[in-house]
Specification:
CATH architecture of the largest domain in chain B: Alpha-Beta Barrel
CATH class of the largest domain in chain B: Alpha Beta
Strand content of chain A: 15-25%
Strand order of the largest sheet of chain B: 4-3-2-1-5-6-7
Helix content of chain A: 25-40%
Bound molecules: iron/sulfur cluster
Number of helices of chain A: 15
CATH superfamily of the largest domain in chain B: Aconitase, domain 4
CATH topology of the largest domain in chain B: Aconitase, domain 4
Helix content of chain B: 25-40%
Distance between the termini of chain B: 35 Å
Oligomer: heterodimer
Number of strands of chain B: 7
C-alpha cells in the first residue's frame, strides 16, 4: 500500500462519514472565534433555535476591531463597538470562553491559539478567517471558513468538505544569513503564484523548513492562503512538542505522555505520493519585497520594479500595469530607492516575540528616518507584549521613534483607527498588499520584520544583509 | 436560502484577474452584524471616487464613471463575468452577500479561490467555471452587444448565449442538489447526529486531551 501524506492522516482521522457524492463529514476539534465573521452565525443559530454542539471546543477573542491605543475608554467607533459587544454577548450567552479586550491574554486569534496550547498537533482547527492555515505549522489540519461554516461548526462540530489534493513544497539547504521565514514564504509565492496551491493542501517540508523555529513555521503556514492553498502544514518534530509543554490548554502529566506518543506519527510516510511537488533552494533566497498589489508580485531587495512589457501573458501584463499605476511605481526602479511613509510591524504573520526581537536588533540605538511619519509595533497578543517589555524591547522601539501599541490586527487590514492615508506608502510585515487593504489608496510593500525595521531607519528599503 | 434553477440575466463584464474579497467588499463594511445591506458597497473602492464609511448615504456619493458597474448599459446585471482566481484573499462571506445583495446570482470565471467558491454555494450564488477560451468569447460578445444576456440552466448545467451557443459546466452533485432545493447544510448534517456522537465517543477515548468536559 502506498504511504500516506500528513494531510491524508489528519483527514482520515477526522472523517465522521463518507457521503455518496464524495464529500465527507469531518469532525472539528478546535473552533476559534472572532468578532467579524461570527455575529451572523450566532444569529443563524438563534433563529433556527439550535444549540451549541460542544462548548469546550470553542475559544473566542476580539482582534480585528480593537483599538491599539489607550483602551480605557473602550471603542470610539460605534459600529466597531457594537460588533465587539455582540461577540461578548454571544460568548456569554453560549458559555464560550472569550479573551475580551481587557483580558491580558487577548490578541490576534492565530497568535493566541498556539500560545495557549488551544491548538495542538493532530487537531482539526477552523476559524472564520483565511489565515487559520497558520496553525498547520504544528502538524494540525487548519483552514479558514466562511460564516455559514462557522454556524455549521457551532451547531454540529462538523463540516461537509471535499478532500483537497496533496501538494508538497520543499525548501532545502542552510538558511542564508539575514533570510527569515517571511522571505522564504514570499519566495515560494513568487515561484508558484497566488493560485499555485489552489485546490491543494500544502505540506512545507525539507531541511530549511526543519531548521525554522516553530514561530517561523507559523509565518510560512500563515501565508499558504496567499499561495491559494486553504491549508498549509508542517510535520511534527521535537521543536513542536517542546513548544507546547506547559501551555495552559495543553495536556499535562500522563495525558501529556499519551499525546506526545500519538503526535509522533504526524508526518508524511516516506513513500507517500503528492499530486504536485515544488522544490526551492534556500541558497537562492534573498530578502524579499513586494512591489505590486498581489503577494506574488515580489522581487529580491536588490532587484528592480519589473517591466510589464516583458510579460507575454496579456492578462498578467494588464494586472502588472494596473498594479504599477496603483503603487505609483516605474519599471526599472531599484527597490532600494523606494521611499516610505509608514512602517507597520505586526499581524498574525509577524507579531510574535521572535519577530519583535529581530526588529529590535536592527533598530537598537538608532532613530527612524525623518520621512517616516509613523512607525508602529503591534504585538500579536497581550502575552507577547508583556514578554517583550520584560526584555526591554518596548524601550528600544520607543527610543528609536516607534510607537508601541496594544495587541490586535491593527493596520494589517485597517478595520480600527490604524490605517494608511490615501497615497501613503508602507513597509508592512503583514500578508496582503491588495489595493486599499491597509487603508483606501494606501500602498503596501510586504517584508520581514528585520527588513521593515531597517527600512524605518533608512527611510527606504535596504538590504538587511548589509547591516550585519 | 433561495433556490437556484434557471436564470436569464444581463451580464456585467469585470475584466480583471485575481479580484480579491477586499475589493469585492471593503473591510469597513465588515463591521456590520447583519447579512444584508452590502449591495451599495460592492466594489466600493472602484465604484466611488470618494472614500466610503458604513452608515453613509451611498446614493449621495461621487460615482466613478469609468468603472464598468456604473455604466448605464449594465444596470440590473445578474451575472458577473470575470477572470481567473476570482474571490482570492480573506474568507469573508460578506463577499457573496454583497454580490447577492447587489443582485448578482451567478458568476462566470475560469477559476475561483477555494473559500469564496465554497461560500457562494452556501448562499445561493452560483459560481460557474468555464474554459478560458469560452470566457474570452463571452467577454467579446458582452462588450460588443448592449443588453447582452445569458441563460444559466443549473439542471442541465448549461450556459446559453443569445445566439444559441451552449457551454456545459461541471458542478458537484451535492452542491447542485442543495442549490436546486435551497437546502441548508446544517439541516442535512443534523440527519447524522448519531454518527457524529459515535465518532466523538471514539475520539474521546483515543485523544482524551482534546476534551475538557
Ligand atoms: S492580523 Fe491581519 S491577516 Fe491576521 S487575522 Fe488579523 S486581519 Fe487577518
Amino acid at each position: 500500500m502506498a504511504g500516506k501524506t500528513l494531510y491524508d492522516k489528519l483527514w482520515d482521522a477526522h472523517v465522521v462519514r463518507h457521503n455518496d457524492d464524495g464529500t465527507c463529514l469531518l469532525y472539528i476539534d478546535r473552533h476559534l472565534v472572532h468578532e467579524v465573521t461570527s455575529p451572523q452565525a450566532f444569529e443563524g443559530l438563534r433563529l433556527a433555535g439550535r444549540k451549541l454542539w460542544r462548548v469546550d471546543a470553542n475559544l473566542a477573542t476580539t482582534d480585528h476591531n480593537v483599538p491599539t491605543t489607550d483602551r480605557s475608554h473602550g471603542i470610539v467607533d460605534p459600529v466597531s463597538r457594537l460588533q465587539v459587544e455582540t461577540l461578548d454577548q454571544n460568548c456569554h450567552d453560549y458559555g464560550i470562553t472569550e479573551f475580551s479586550m481587557s483580558d491580558a491574554r487577548q490578541g490576534i486569534v492565530h497568535v493566541i491559539g498556539p500560545e495557549q496550547g488551544a491548538t495542538l498537533p493532530g487537531m482539526t482547527v477552523v476559524c472564520g478567517d483565511s489565515h487559520t492555515s497558520t496553525h498547520g505549522a504544528f502538524g494540525a489540519l487548519a483552514f479558514g471558513i466562511g460564516t455559514s461554516e462557522v454556524e455549521h461548526v457551532l451547531a454540529t462540530q462538523c463540516l461537509i468538505l471535499k478532500k483537497a489534493k496533496n501538494m508538497r513544497v520543499r525548501v532545502e539547504g542552510k538558511i542564508p544569513p539575514g533570510i527569515t521565514a517571511k522571505d522564504i514564504v514570499l519566495a515560494i509565492i513568487g515561484e508558484i503564484g497566488t493560485a499555485g496551491g489552489t485546490g491543494h493542501a500544502v505540506e512545507f517540508a525539507g531541511s530549511t523548513i526543519r531548521q525554522l523555529s516553530v514561530e517561523g513555521r507559523m509565518t510560512v503556514c500563515n501565508m499558504a492562503i496567499e499561495a491559494g492553498a486553504r491549508a498549509g502544514m508542517i510535520a511534527v518534530d521535537d521543536k513542536t512538542i517542546k513548544y507546547f509543554h506547559g501551555r495552559p490548554y495543553a495536556p499535562a502529566g500522563e495525558l501529556w505522555e499519551q499525546a506526545v506518543a500519538a503526535w509522533q506519527d504526524l508526518r508524511s510516510d516516506p513513500e507517500a505520493k503528492f499530486d504536485k511537488e515544488v522544490t526551492l533552494n534556500a541558497a537562492d533566497i534573498k530578502p524579499q519585497v513586494t512591489w505590486g498589489t498581489s503577494p506574488e508580485m515580489v522581487v529580491p531587495v536588490d532587484g528592480v520594479v519589473p517591466d510589464p512589457d516583458r510579460e507575454f501573458d496579456s492578462i498578467k501584463r494588464e494586472g502588472m500595469q494596473r498594479a504599477l499605476k496603483y503603487m505609483d511605481l516605474k519599471p526599472g526602479t531599484p527597490m532600494r530607492d523606494i521611499m516610505l511613509d509608514k512602517i507597520f510591524i505586526g499581524s498574525c504573520t509577524n507579531s510574535r516575540i521572535e519577530d519583535l526581537r529581530a526588529a529590535a536588533t536592527v533598530v537598537k540605538g538608532k532613530k527612524i528616518a525623518k520621512n517616516i511619519r509613523l512607525a508602529m509595533v503591534v504585538p500579536g497578543s497581550g502575552l507577547v507584549k508583556v514578554q517583550a517589555e520584560k526584555e526591554g524591547l518596548d524601550k528600544i522601539f520607543l527610543e528609536a521613534g516607534f510607537e508601541w501599541r496594544a495587541p490586535g490586527c491593527s493596520m494589517c487590514l485597517a478595520m480600527n483607527a490604524d490605517r494608511l492615508e490615501f497615497g501613503e506608502r508602507c513597509a508592512s510585515t503583514s500578508n496582503r498588499n491588495f489595493e486599499g487593504r491597509q487603508g483606501a489608496g494606501g500602498r503596501s510593500h510586504l517584508v520581514s520584520p528585520a527588513m521593515a525595521a531597517a527600512a524605518a531607519i533608512a527611510g527606504h528599503f535596504v538590504d538587511v544583509r548589509e547591516l550585519h | 436560502m433561495e433556490k437556484f434553477e434557471t436564470l436569464t440575466g444581463l451580464v456585467l463584464p469585470l475584466d480583471r484577474a485575481n479580484v480579491d474579497t477586499d475589493a469585492i467588499i471593503a473591510k469597513q463594511y465588515l463591521k456590520s452584524i447583519k447579512r444584508t445591506g452590502f449591495g451599495p458597497n460592492l466594489f466600493d473602492d472602484w465604484r466611488y471616487l470618494d472614500p466610503g464609511e458604513p452608515g453613509m448615504d451611498h446614493s449621495q456619493r461621487r460615482i466613478n464613471p469609468d468603472f464598468i458597474l456604473n455604466q448605464p448599459r449594465y444596470r440590473g446585471a445578474q451575472i458577473l463575468l470575470t477572470r481567473d482566481n476570482f474571490g482570492c484573499g480573506s474568507s469573508r462571506e460578506h463577499a457573496p452577500w454583497a454580490l447577492l445583495d447587489y443582485g448578482i446570482r451567478a458568476v462566470i470565471a475560469p477559476s475561483y479561490a477555494d473559500i469564496f467558491y465554497n461560500n457562494s454555494f452556501k448562499n445561493g450564488l452560483l459560481p460557474i467555471v468555464l474554459e478560458r477560451e469560452a470566457v474570452e468569447r463571452l467577454f467579446r460578445e458582452t462588450e460588443a452587444t448592449p443588453g447582452y444576456r445569458l441563460t444559466v440552466d443549473l439542471a442541465s448545467q448549461k450556459v446559453t448565449t443569445p445566439s444559441g451557443m451552449e457551454f456545459k459546466f461541471e458542478i458537484d452533485a451535492f452542491r447542485k442538489h442543495c442549490l436546486v432545493n435551497g437546502l441548508d447544510d446544517i439541516g442535512l448534517t443534523m440527519q447524522h447526529v448519531d454518527e457524529i456522537k459515535a465518532y466523538e465517543g471514539r475520539r474521546r477515548k483515543q485523544a482524551p486531551w482534546l476534551f475538557s468536559e
